[in-house]
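Worked Example 4.2. Read the sequence first, then its structure tokens.
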Amino acid sequence: MYPTSILRGLRPEELRLLAQAHDDQAEALRAAASRRGDEITRAAAAQKLVAYLHSLPDLVAARAQSMPEDAAIRMVSRETGVPLETVAAHWRHAKKRIAEEARERRNREIMRLAARGWTNSAIGARLDLHPSTVARIIQRALRATAAMAAE
């Protein structure tokens, strides 16, 4: 079941959408929806649900600092009532996004240092990378730049 703090903020249509998404919780959500009288759009309900689901990786990350990742995922699933597969999928997506952002930051730093005239060895020493890795990243960035210029 969803935490009551989340359910309290939802309107009848939002509760109905949640109920449709999770059949096992449908009866309790429909009952809560029937006790509320106001109506909202499906888009607003979907937006609240998406925002809630996007908060799941933060909950897992907070718990994963003190326990194994799979245990943190199970705990968040139990606490929120969101199916285990959904929590795990959102966690995998967030981890992938975080890794991509870190890689992009590192690549920008490499290109910034290369533009200042640093050698591959100096960049590698500063960022704890092998010089050939630095060269490959620079080469890939230059190829992408040339392809964009050709368009």
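Now turn to a second chain, presented in exactly the same format:
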Amino acid sequence: MDNEGMGIMDRKLIQDTLSKVEKLMDPSTGIRLDNGEGKLADLAVLLNETPISRKRKIAILGSYLLLHLGLESHQELDSQKSEERTRSLLAGDYLFGVYIRWLVQNEERDLLAYLSPVHKKIQIELATGLPLTLALAELFTEFKRYLASCSEGQRP
């Protein structure tokens, strides 16, 4: 989705999420969230249509961002030299750790339990040759499925 298709509420949700996630990140890692807004637009629209609290929307959106960035970081390993490869591997692992801490701190243990096997499945698929774009589409689909269960008042 382009920025023109987003409403004010969607932009505010993204900005608030990026701000909160940035506060959780250790600045010494050098990991920047500059390009995070584009990754979050479609999910922000869905979240703003889901009848859950704003706190949960931020928690869910932040977890999506951290998983998305971690998967991207790990997938860049093939195209990098040794030192860059090590840095990307560590950055991806760090982001996955922050993702878990983020969900626990935001009391989203159900989402963590739901996404753990999804995340593992996607990592295996990427290791066996699935293109990153398809893996990220699968991740988005799983978040949509989780939100649908929230809308119906069920736990996934």
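Notes for the reader: The two ends are 26 Å apart (CA to CA). The CA atoms of residues 43 and 61 lie 7 Å apart.
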